[in-house]
Amino acid sequence: MGITIKRWVYTALGTTFLFIGVIGAILPILPTTPFVLLASACFVRGNPALYKKLNQHPTFGPILQNWQQNRCIERSVKKKAYLFIVASFTVSIIVAPLIWVKMLLAGLFLALIIWFRSIPTHVDIAPPTENH
């Protein structure tokens, strides 16, 4: 695969992941943070300009910078993500019409929670004013 095609594929994937992340930020259907991290990883390989723009975004930039510097997620971001994951899967499981769909959703929920718990949580050692 040529370099141009790879860049196009990474840019398309990054755009898709970012779109899903934005939907997750607006609606409690999907967690935002993992999709923004995926978008960033794709943009760094496919479109450095979009990568830079995403890292400078007032909402997503701090999350990405914390991930890049510390390989962890802020406690407040994690709490919100847990809340949205639990809420969205609970609603989905309740409204799912078939038992096998409910079981599939429950399995996906469990896998997502286990994976998300494995991501380290950033803890400030000093008060926020001293960390900057």
Automatic annotation (TrEMBL):
TM helices/strands, residue ranges: 17-44, 81-114
Pfam families: DUF454
InterPro entries in UniProt: DUF454
Record has ATP-binding as a keyword: no
Membrane topology: Multi-pass membrane protein
Location in or out of the cell: Cell inner membrane
Top-rank taxon, per record: Bacteria
Record key words, sorted: Cell inner membrane, Cell membrane, Membrane, Transmembrane, Transmembrane helix
PANTHER family reported in the protein's UniProt record: INNER MEMBRANE PROTEIN YBAN
Protein name from the UniProt record: Inner membrane protein
